[in-house]
Amino acid sequence: MILLVTAAATYGLRVVLITLVPAHRLPAVMRRGLSHLAPAALAALVVTALVGSRGATALVVLGPMHLALAVAALVAWRFRNPALPVLAAVAVMTVLEVLS
Amino acid sequence: MDITLRHTRRADGVMDAVRDLAPVVLGLAPFAMLIGVTAVRSGVGAGTGVLSSALLYGGSGQLTAITLMGGGAGAGAVLAAVTLVNARFLLYAAALEPHFRGQPRWFRWAAAHFVVDPTYAMVTRRGALGDLDDPARFRRYWLTAGGVLAVAWVAMTALGGLLAPVLSASSALDVAAPAMFLAMLVPQLRARPAVVGAGTAGVTAALASPLPSGLGLLCGIAAGVVAATVTPLTRTRTTDPSRRAS
């Protein structure tokens, strides 16, 4: 039941600016901002996964995930294939776990 | 219109989606499996994990829901936390709305369910090339990408649930999701506003990460969007041709 209510709320988030209040009725400044959404959202998702709830210090206190994501970034920059960075990051994490 | 040409165009939207989606599915598979594993280990059960993949269809929101439910949190707390974590879908939907405008009513209501990080990123990349301007082509692309990803997502979650008892407690799966998002981010870092927006979003998300679940992420996204929006203005001023000429 909790899951159904949560799913309904999530569906509402997805549908409201497409069907009920179409986004082209939003103020121009907001619409301009939306074109810059993708890089900001993706970067925030990466960093949130990296630091958890430990705050900004977790960005500079290096751990295995930092190394894995650094390798993933290099692979993404070099090959532009979405699967390779993931495989590289998982491989780095696995190797580091085995070594430790 | 010539039948062959019409068929080719129809196949175009579908095949483009399949081509774009294949590496994404491969990359997201560990993340989907992680949700199945977490569902089993947190005690809510593999069935709930699979159901969450079909109904919620968003990895971070699902992990939040499963973790909270496994910890015995109340319905209100789960609803509030997942709504906050998934609030970014509101922004994605707003950004994607031009593609949904002029589409049939059934599509606007039903296909909105497929608004999620990978489909948004895929359309953004294709849209930048002007590839999805035709409504029918966008419809085929979106239904294929969203539908196939949903089926794969549910299947991989189920697989994770099945394999949970035999998978070791490795943290290697944890890195799959951020690596996938990184793979989608890097190709977008061509223009200066994107770089500034991504940098600002990352730093802000880190600074705000101790805030209750989801808020740090939202703060990061908001700060990044604002920073990217004002960046072109700054740049226009410094690269004014009349100044360069003098």
Automatic annotation (TrEMBL), chain A:
Listed InterPro entries: Brnchd-chn_aa_trnsp_AzlD
Organism domain of life: Bacteria
Key words, A-Z: Membrane, Transmembrane, Transmembrane helix
Source species of the chain: Actinomycetospora chibensis
TM segment ranges: 33-51, 58-77, 83-99
Protein name (database record): AzlD domain-containing protein
TrEMBL record, chain B:
Predominant location: membrane
Membrane-related topology note: Multi-pass membrane protein
This protein's UniProt keywords: Cell membrane, Membrane, Transmembrane, Transmembrane helix, Transport
Keyword Ion transport: no
Subcellular localization, as worded in the UniProt entry: Cell membrane
Segments crossing the lipid bilayer: 21-44, 64-91, 141-160, 215-234
Family under the similarity heading: Belongs to the AzlC family.
Protein name: AzlC family ABC transporter permease
Provenance organism: Actinomycetospora chibensis
